């Protein structure tokens, strides 16, 4: 499985759990896409789902991102990621896992 797909799955699952627990409104969840951010200081991967949900919910994007991040559960194969609003920084992976893809 590509790491982008794994991250997208973790974020999508977290958004669904956040809705189930009432941390996010019951809106249709947009497709989670993961990309490399334009600016390197924003980390290795980015997902804009918090921005999309915030627009639909007329809510603060940071609050939406924090609600999603609160429900992230790492896979058994990966350590906890570090989050930067609204980006995912995977430098934690790079330092913790030999062979982690570098940009």
CATH architecture: 2-Layer Sandwich
Average of pLDDT: 78
Stretches where pLDDT is under 50 for at least 5 consecutive residues are: 85-98
What CATH first level would be assigned?
Alpha Beta
Largest sheet: 4 strands, antiparallel
* Major sheet strand order: 1-2-4-3
Number of domains: 1
Q: How many DSSP E strands?
A: 4
Total helices: the number is 4
CATH level 3 topology: Gyrase A, domain 2
Helix/strand order, N-terminal first = HEEHHEEH
Structure description:
With 103 residues, this protein is of the alpha+beta class. It contains four helices and four strands; from the N terminus they run H-E-E-H-H-E-E-H. Strands 1-2-4-3 form a four-stranded antiparallel beta sheet. A hairpin with a 2-residue loop joins strand 3 and strand 4 (87-89). Helix 1 (3-20) packs across helix 3 and helix 2 (49-57) crosses helix 3 (61-70). The longest helix is centred in the first third of the chain and has 18 residues, at 3-20. It is globular. Mean pLDDT is 78; it is low at 85-98.
Notable features of this structure?
4 strands; about 100 residues; alpha+beta; about 10% strand; four-stranded antiparallel sheet; Gyrase A, domain 2
List the helices and strands and how they pair.
Layout: H1 3-20, E1 34-35, E2 45-47, H2 49-57, H3 61-70, E3 82-84, E4 87-89, H4 91-96
Antiparallel strand pairs: 1-2, 2-4, 3-4
Helix pairs in contact: 1-3, 2-3
